[in-house]
Write a structure and sequence with these properties.
The protein is mainly β. The protein has seven helices and 43 strands. It is globular and about 75 Å long. Keywords: Cell outer membrane, Membrane, Receptor, Signal, TonB box, Transmembrane, Transmembrane beta strand, Transport.
Length: 709
Amino acid sequence: MTHSRGKTLGLGLMLLGMVSPQLQANTSDEDELLALYGDTEMISIATGSLQSITKAPAVATVINADDIREMGASELDQVLETVPGLHVARSALGYNPIYTFRGIRSNYNPQVLLLINGIPISSLYNGDRGLIWGGMPVNAIERIEVIRGPGSALYGADAFAGVINITTLSGSDITQNEFGVRAGSYDTQDAWGKLAGEWHDFTLGMIVEFHQTDGQHELIGSDLQSGLDALAGTSASNAPGAVSLSRENLDIRLDIVKDNWQFRSGLQRRRNWGNGAGVAEALDPDNRWKSDRFNADLTYHNANFSDFWDLQAQISYFDTSTEAENDMHIFPAGSDLTLIGLGGVYPEGLIGNPESFERHTRANITASYTRLEKHHIRGGIGYVFSDLYKVRETKNFGPDPITGEQLPPGSPVVDVSDTPYVYLQEGNRENTYIYLQDIWHLADDWELTAGLRYDDYSDFGNTTNPRVALVWSSSRKLTTKLLYGKAFRAPAFAETRAINNPVVLGNPDLDPETLSSYELAFDYRATERLRFSLNLFHYDWRDIIKFTADASGNTKTANNAGSQTGKGLELDLDWRINDLWQVKANYAWQDSVDEATDRRTSQVPGSQAYLAANWTLSDRVQLHGQLNWVMSREREALDTRDSIDDYATLDLTLNYRDDNNAWGGSIMLRNLTDTDAREPSDWSNPVAAIPDDLPLEGRNIYAQIYFKF
């Protein structure tokens, strides 16, 4: 650990130490429900109010902190891969996660809405979690709720293919202070601390998490530069070479509660971020990126505001950046780029450093009314101001900002920020919305949920998205759900404002993508210990935004140019065989079709399966094993490579804790059989830039220990 890293971590832990270890939890109505039913049996993301997952008007999964500990997960994506119908694919750029729901996939993944404590963390630039995502550790997570299917009637833009809500620990959740460390493969070193206490009438909680790794070392045998070398007679490529996945993350979260008020803030600091297989699928082992993501929110919630009213008001702020720590080599030193129209040999490589800075401010008021018999009415209004307020770029190609003439190969890096030659236009977006929802108890066994949300955007107009859900308690053990919903995905600024890019250009006249979804779901509780669920779905995805070739043939411009339909099923099993054994299993099958080619959608799993067994050897020791299969992925229409191989990975976790739960530890073995698992790389006619696909990590091992006090 360097001096600066140690200083930063030490400061965070010192701040933790200022909080008293004595804690008396303030119990809310939601806490009481969770205590009564168990937190994996309740969900709030489906309607905005806590309710039984069996009767929730959505197909949903809940994973709590105990589940995460049992499976030995240290990072969010390891948890999400266990959700039925959700596959965590990988992008070549930084190996960023692509959360693929039911065959809906795109490289930047803006069709999935990720919430932290109910607040979106989407970027304006690409509509995703940010290019410098760098993962999210799990020690601060209290529970994860996942909805498969649309959620725009409640959450608006990008709640499209699915919604993921991460609830972080509050002070009342931390019943014992905790400090832990973890180490393992790829020179990975982690540390975390959790502290909580009371000060006057305030309940306080703070969590610090530090993560450092060199990243996996799997090799890329050939990249885009390899192909250019073969044509130009050069030898500039860094392939064969390892993917660049170094990370240095610091996450700090603070929670303060007093009466009906709650203040939360968080910092996600990313440094030394390696860019995976390269921004242009040409290996760049030296480039590093950084990002700072800061969020804060203040919430007033009074469940008994008056006799029949539950009122919540909230303001929040989110600030995020994408910054270069050193030069990004789009192509390496010695590249001859004549064949792609960039005019010759670049002795220092083709260098480009695009940077962006955003801030998002939100305000909303939500109210629930229960005076009407058999109706639970919920409504809300809100305003969002999102501002991509600064764009910076340095590069050694394109027009000279002084002369306007093209920079010749070999030119030094110049700063084109605040000139007409920067890669992206700065700008902002305003969104005003209103929504209304009614949960109508038609009869003892029937419940109808109907909702509607209207959004007005300053840059592309308005959109209205309804939902209807009929839930029938068919018997004491069986619940049947019939669901319909519409959703939209707002165009990202990279699709509307990109300029001066040698490859892709934005289009300010884009319409939002739309989705209509139909689902039939069955939830069967055979016994208190055995649960089955079956979900059938069909969707229609329209106005897909794609970059299509321009008449010149040299560039592509964003257009609403695609459509896709999909259907499938998801099976889920949770069986607590006895006090010693629990088995969880799920299987998902989907058939999605690109209507332009009348072919199955490329790169997405046609089927996937998951099997986990948890064996309680004693009060102190648990052994958890899980198998994950990913199957039936198709190549793109013109791709002439062999079929994408299926893969199955096996993970084992051994957990120990002492009788008093004062300390514990785990040993985690991932990909125990050292399976050669790969995610598909894109096809670039006439060849793939990375012919052998993107290798995932091989066998790896970690050990951790924690102490509670």
